[in-house]
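FW: tagging you since you asked about this chain on Friday. Here's the raw sequence from the shared folder, copied in full. Didn't touch anything.
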Amino acid sequence: MYDKKISRRIGLALALVLIVLSPLAAMGGGEATAATDDSFDEYVELVMYSSGTSGKDTQMVMERFNELLKEKCNTTIDVTCLGWDNYKNQYQLILTTGEEADLMYVNADLYGTYAPNGAFTDLTELFPEYMPTVYSYFTPEQLKQAEVDGRIYEVPSYVSNYVQNGLFYRKDLADKYGTGEVKSIEDFERYADAIAQNEKGMRVIDGNPEQFLFQLFMANYGFEPIAGSTTSVIVVESYDDIHDIIAYPFTDEYVEWAHKMKDWAGRGYWSSNALSSTMDPWSSIQVGTSAVTQANADGAKNMMGYMAQKLPEAECAYWSFADLLGYSYVYPVTGDGFAIPASSPNAVRALQVLELIKTDQELFDLWMYGIEGHHYSLTEEGDLVKPAVGVDPSTVNNHSMSGAQYAMRVQNLMRNDAGVWEGYDGLMAHLEELEVPNKFGAVSIDYTSVQSELAAVNQVVQQYGHPINIGIVDDVDAAIAEYREQLKAAGIDRLLEEVARQMEAYYQENGIV
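HL: got it, structure written out here
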């Protein structure tokens, strides 16, 4: 049921042919194709896809959840987590072949890519009709962030999170080797050197480090992503210079950083085979094989809880990359949410069920936290104690559905972990002090006219850019020269011109300077 092969999917070879021959825009405009009755007389199993991986206990939790959901609304949900390394390719297959699916986790990048092209059901009228309570949570300004050409294709999560990522690391190891707190890249290097030289069976970053290093690179030079993307090579020059849209592989900063990555790789911070690793630092740190991972503020809070359960002997700390930038800002509402594919036969039911889960504390707790009395107990204040009081931690595994949980969040139902991280409130206060308006996050770039260039550029980034980004090329300058040449051949100039044009239109329309 979770992380399984998707038997409903057609063969990969045929799917790839369809991707080439059938653009998303030909899917029929995103009109709701679902049955329009709003009763629960007929049993429905909703099919949901999510980014990330599921926990070992997730199947057990979802069996309990679906029993309760069926009692309440004659519905169950089949959730498939598509992993972290390939879920975007899997999404493309699902959406371009018209495979039936009812709910999909989307972030700002996925939403901006697919919403303009008819891949998702238009929810502009359906959202307020079938989810009136959740719809009422959002201000008109927030809902406008989710508009694409004046229409809404997403049910956003209802939380405010800060965008900036940061370094989550083992403070007990920093204390052991006397390297001090990590508050700069130089501090990180001292800490990383101590780990690489002394900790057998552990790497500084165990697994693929590319995304962590990309986040650090962006923060170090003040580059800003467009539409929440963490993969595009096209970025905003800086928060104060928003009209200069650039392709960062052509900058001097990238050359400097690539040489630093070559140095870090040579120091043994990660494996020379890291790009093909099936592990990720988020999972590795929980089993003691990685000394760091990346997380935003809320992710760091969650990881503190995981580490207290998995490695209670470890003391951890967090350094926000907002300190490198000197500012922070919150995600747009499109940062995490659910979209309904245009292929869904159950759009109305999907909305009704989301409304129920997002307003029913019992269902919400099961979805988000697992089984009470096993995965958690509640204090008198309603805070979470993990695992449940009196339960042997060795008998409790993780319940996680990654994006499917991020998108389900509503502020008024969320619970805090009891006494896990005393520094969280201080971190949030610090980020609030640094807060500035989010100038970029609500833009949705329509790539329809440059779809072939985008696909070609992304392929070049993966083939030529990622090895440079983690320092596993023999000659950095020669590799960058080849990378730039391949990007030019793939159409980076036309892609850059189109993105810059749409960004300027977005700035003008919204009065952003």
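FW: The CA atoms of residues 258 and 469 lie 6 Å apart.
HL: agreed, and Residues 12-161+333-369 form a domain with the D-Maltodextrin-Binding Protein; domain 2 fold (CATH 3.40.190.10).
FW: great, closing this out.
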